[in-house]
Amino acid sequence: MFQNSVQKNGRIISFWSDLWIGDKPLMYSWPNLYENESVKNCAAADRLIASENSSVLTWNWSNSPFSDADAAKLHRLTDSIREVRLSELSDKWICTGSPDGSFSVGSLRKLLVEDNAAVHDNIMEWVKWVPANCSIFFWKALQNRIPTRAELIKRNIFINDPNYCFCGDYEESTDHVFSGCSVTSQVWQRFCSWARLPPLFAFDFKDVAEFHSGCNLNREEEGVIKGLIMIACWCIWRA
């Protein structure tokens, strides 16, 4: 609900660990550069020095020289924040859930109501014979509450590599793990072939969770397929 704003003096905002530019902290956008930073809790003002036309960036690296790949990343990072201007005003928090950026009880209540509505949209019909740990995991996944690397990063937990370990191509999110990964797609392909079902084409996890309802099965058969998918998802996650 809150986000830092560094369009002030940058003396309080953490350059690497606070969210002040882009959609996530720089330590997650540029993990290799962050690892090479000597003063990891440095303020934005420690790295951004105002000049006449743009901000000059100063660094304090623990290792030098960089590899060619890291040098290219540093160049992109520098380009992305070169136009940031600091002022003499104090840093402040802004409330992203409020139109004017200020905190209010009403904006908090609206956020909680919207979040509660999203939870109710994911009400799940349980399958009795599925083990409890599989059922609970599946229910959490429907609400995007499982600890994927993408979700851990949102909670300011440092992850060296945000990509999914099976494919290494994209960030590990609930949707990618169970519907976007090429390895997972092969699992669903073989599952459908074994169960004599039509192919499972999923764009997100919800498509996987609702697959059983579009296979022209009776209620008992739907329950079996849904239960097997729940167990399969648990196995994919534990693999």
Instruction: Report the uncertain regions.
Output: none
Taking the alpha carbons of the first and last residues, their distance comes to: 34 Å
Strand percentage lies at: 5-15%
Mean pLDDT: 84
Count of domains: 2
Spell the H/E element sequence: EHHHEEHEHHHHHHH
Number of strands: 4
Major sheet characteristics: 2 strands, antiparallel
Q: What's the gyration radius in Å?
A: 23 Å
Number of helices: 11
Shape: elongated
Q: Work out the helicity level.
A: 40-55%
Class per helix and strand makeup: mainly alpha
Strand order of the largest sheet: 1-4
Protein described:
The protein has helices at 26-29, 31-35, 44-47, 68-81, 105-121, 132-142, 149-154, 174-180, 182-195, 205-209, 219-238; strands at residues 2-5, 48-50, 55-57, 92-95. It has 239 residues and is mostly helical. It has two domains: 1-115, no CATH class; 122-238, no CATH class. The strands form two sheets. A two-stranded antiparallel sheet has the order 1-4. Strands 2-3 form a two-stranded antiparallel ribbon. A hairpin with a 4-residue loop joins strand 2 and strand 3. The two termini are 34 Å apart. The mean pLDDT is 84.
